[in-house]
Amino acid sequence: MNGSQTPARPPPPLSGRGSPLSRMPPRKSLALFAFIFLINYLLMRFLFPGEQPVTVPYTEFRQQVAAGNVIALYSRGTTIEGRFRNAVTWPTPEEVKQAGQPPRPTPLDRRLLPPPKTSSHFNTELPAFFDRDLEDFLINNKVEISAVPIQQGGLWTTLLYFGPALLIIGFYVWMYRRAAQGGGMGGGGVFGIGRSKAKRYDATDPSLRVTFNDVAGIDEAEAELVEIVDFLKAPDKYTRLGGTAPKGVLLIGAPGTGKTLLAKAVAGEAGVPFFSMSAAEFVEMIVGVGAARVRDLFKQARESAPAIIFIDEIDAIGRARGGVMVGGGHSEQEQTLQQILTEMDGFTGREGIIVLAATNTPDVLDRALLRPGRFDRRVVVNLPDKAGREAILKVHVRKTPLAADVRLEELAQATPGFSGADLKNLVNEAALLAARRSEAAVTHKDFLDALEKIVLGPERPLLLTLQDRERIAYHEGGHAILGLVVPGADPVHRVSIVPRGQALGVTYQRPQTDRYNYPEAYLRARIIGMLGGRAAEEVVYGTKTTGAENDIEQATQLARNMVTRWGMSEAVGMVQLAPRENHFLGAPGGFGGEKPFSEQTAALIDAEVQRIIHGCHEEAKRLLREHRRALDGLVSALLNKETLSEEEILQATGLPPAPQLEGAPIREKTV
Ligand SMILES: Nc1ncnc2c1ncn2[C@@H]1O[C@H](COP(=O)(O)OP(=O)(O)OP(=O)(O)O)[C@@H](O)[C@H]1O
Ligand SMILES: [Zn+2]
Fold first, then answer.
1. What integer pLDDT is reported at residue 662 of this predicted model?
2. Fewest CB atoms less than 10 Å from the CB: which of 40, 154, 574, 614?
3. Which positions in this protein are listed as binding ATP (predicted)?
4. Catalytic residue among 476, 537, 538, 608
5. Is 589 annotated as contributing to ligand binding?
6. Which residue, of 365, 381, 397, is where some domain finishes?
């Protein structure tokens, strides 16, 4: 009943911005539908000119027959339908004038003559008294009398009639499927299936211009692209001095790290147009379309060179060939890829066009793409470190009014694993919260609340009894106290017993710095902290609840990694017994089904994991008994205020922050 969790690992990078279906603005689609209707109408008019018959009085009909202007007719009941040789207008202007009605009567003028109409098709009503000599009269005047309706006869006519309608229905179906596939229907739309739907973004428009000023926290990647900017600014000078013109640059990085932003900034810095397109949009159901789009995209860029072509998600088409494809589209994908290669091979280096492409799975790319003269430069865009995150936050709060208490450095510290896009989202959420609270400026608390919402989900209203709340408070208090007293533990900066997402309470700890290398003592401190919730319940109540499930899961995982991956068990030694965890740049891990060790080793691993967990559990209980007074103080403050900040925690417990480990952590990239 008392579930809670400690976010032990950095929050997963948040992604997924904007669903593909939402890409088509409703107004655009409306205009498109209107256009199709218009085409349909014109087509019908073209195929069936004068389709609307004119209704003439019987006397007028006879006059036309006498004048030899009636070619053929068909009669059904008392109605006669037929065709004139020359189109007839009825009522005639004279008749309209005689009746004294306006040239364009409104529906209210019903008793008057109908509006004049011109057609070579007509119909008329036979008078009630039967015209005996009509047949002779018609034959004498060489009118063809037919038993089939003149217009509705024949399969051919029927087909012709429904053809356009069928075509249009087919068209709608096709368009919806495309929209559903996320292709969007941007610029080219219906009118140019083979035209590229590249979004052109003009770096010369100052309001849209993105520069390196807007990019932060990924300085290494930025520095590597400065050369590209120089080249675009003066392609001739560059090649004259003997430099080889760069052709393609592959930007590699996790989602939201700013690859698109970086490409735009290169265009902005160089002052050249930027053509961007997602590779997923190249891949169509119709074979050959992708290649045509590529051709068009490069043509457009060539016309406005120097320019940048940006291809997002290149892995969508650049996947190594010969692999297993899901569904169709294999050869389509190949053709599209081939076309890109052909276009790039065609560069002499004097066009001043550079192709930037982005991916987050470089290992799956076809070798052909990476060959010299193609995407032979690779720029890795890493997730930002703490200083980088602070710099990115600074970029995004430029237009946000901030309260004086906002400490961006602390926020940067609390957001390990966040990408640039995640940080932008954080600023946005905080601003929304501030607006909802009708504040004049965004406060530090808005940021913390936004962060909590992003990482843990929104608050969940739950009716809890006083006993439940107290138990949750002791559980969270246990985590928090251990965060304060275990040397090397991550500082606790927030404790809350407000239910959120799956958790009934939360203890939020933030690492002092970004850690790339974890000392063993730190990992033990983490496990002790994770087990602190259950340990506190045991120390205070002497009973257990299900609330520790998440804690147990995380602690076990960590202990298992210590034994099987990091060689931290004397009994097992430095042997790799579990695959490296999937990392976005790493090859997919896994030993492929079978365990590469014996049953004895398996038993040894289990025993070692249990030994670590058991030791940490005992240590947690011992420390909580020792600091029972601090724990009680924290719990009463929690029951009182529900959420406590770092200062409030220190005040309620009367404890100093946890001492840091000696020589730790070591900051070193080991990716
Ligand atoms: N380093 C950064 N500095 C400033 N803003 C950033 C940074 N990285 C990302 N952002 C913000 O996040 C937004 C999304 O980033 P962007 O689309 O460039 O990421 P991406 O790496 O191309 O992502 P994806 O792989 O999902 O296409 C940017 O428009 C920008 O506002
Ligand atoms: Zn817990």
1. 54
2. 574
3. 253-260
4. 476
5. no
6. 381
